[in-house]
Amino acid sequence: xxxxxxxxxxxxxxxxxxxxxxxxxxxxxxxxxxxxxxxxxxxxxxxxxxxxxxxxxxxxxxxxxxxxxxxxxxxxxxxxxxxxxxxxxxxxxxxxxxxxxxxxxxxxxxxxxxxxxxxxxxxxxxxxxxxxxxxxxxxxxxxxxxxxxxxxxxxxxxxxxxxxxxxxxxxxxxxxxxxxxxxxxxxxxxxxxxxxxxxxxxxxxxxxxxxxxxxxxxxxxxxxxxxxxxxxxxxxxxxxxxxxxxxxxxxxxxxxxxxxxxxxxxxxxxxxxxxxxxxxxxxxxxxxxxxxxxxxxxxxxxxxxxxxxxxxxxxxxxxxxxxxxxxxxxxxxxxxxxxxxxxxxxxxxxxxxxxxxxxxxxxxxxxxxxxxxxxxxxxxxxxxxxxxxxxxxxxxxxxxxxxxxxxxxxxxxxxxxxxxxxxxxxxxxxxxxxxxxxxx
Length: 440
Fold this sequence. Notes:
By secondary structure, the chain is an alpha+beta fold. The protein folds into three domains: 29-239, 3-Layer(aba) Sandwich (Rossmann fold); 247-328, Beta Barrel (Elongation Factor Tu (Ef-tu), domain 3); 337-439, Elongation Factor Tu (Ef-tu), domain 3 (Beta Barrel), CATH 2.40.30. The protein is 16% helix and 31% strand. The chain has helices spanning 42-52, 58-70, 86-91, 121-128, 146-157, 177-191, 227-233; strands at residues 29-36, 98-103, 108-113, 133-139, 162-168, 198-203, 247-248, 251-253, 265-269, 280-284, 288-297, 300-301, 310-315, 326-328, 337-346, 353-354, 358-363, 366-379, 386-387, 392-393, 398-409, 422-426, 433-439. The strands form four sheets. Strands 7, 8, 9, 10, 11, 12, 13 and 14 form an eight-stranded antiparallel sheet that branches. Strands 2-3-1-4-5-6 form a six-stranded mixed sheet, with helices on both faces. A hairpin with a 4-residue loop joins strand 2 (98-103) and strand 3. It is globular, with a radius of gyration of 23 Å. Residues 2-27 and 84-95 have low confidence and may be disordered.
């Protein structure tokens, strides 16, 4: 959940698919995470999106058609396009998080295909933590299930700003408007208990292609858009925090070149707000102030920088700034704190999260050690029940935890900024990530 580092050499290049080589981020990118119970048709839906948007090579399609015939299917099993692990193909289920990429003339997409089983909650948290939109599938024959509710709860806890409920397999209920409206009413009623700012419900048939890429003539009673049209047009740029300026320093750039002998810049990915040359800035935790002399993105200067651009900021004054520091505004800075109240998803069989436990943490570009002061409650993500008597968190369990860090965290509440409001916990003995946290 914490921002991963990108390699920086000299002046930083734009890192990752969020960015373009021009130095400005491509705002036509949508990250969305899919979630669904077993046999809800999630992998088939992704296969349909890839096929109907012309993202599948002819030899790939031929291989899938051939395998489908060998298995005795009278249809092309599009799920074979996405379930990459042999164990997934054999079981017909999704186990690990798989990232798929496709594009239309209007927008680029990154799909985090996450498993829906309760034993893979950690995988879903990983895949959905950076998503702009959550796509929950339900089987029209089954309606709302315990897993459907759990997926919605996790997406709500992760503050995914947009949620789409895709009622799949409408072909198996004769495209019934009554069935669709009942599921829509049930889910909408449940969603009122959660933090879901934007909810859209779409009836589809992933197998037949109804309302996936094109509007379906078989459901004339539905007057909304197709799923792909909705994904192409939903507005996500305003979901990012453009008010609270935050630049976690990842790397101090000092090129060993005669041409840049006096160059000193501070590189990182902007987590919030807008930076411009001439702006007064504050560096935490030192508390020194300066003004921005210039902002470099890839191989040229830019007039402004905003999330999720990766840039190098040069300051007018020669300050002591290092990795893990935060550049922000003097009148709008995070309050450094060593006492952290957070929701934690535990991701390890052993060790379990227990009181007085000591771990390492990574928050943006800052690292340190942390001790578990208290486990306030364990949350049942199916029922939202709080177990106040819980003494530990096991694999895939979530709970509210009080932590004490060795170095101050320059953080914001997760609901305000998903980058500066999240962190990961690491087992010091093995170096394995054992938990993901969302600061309250």
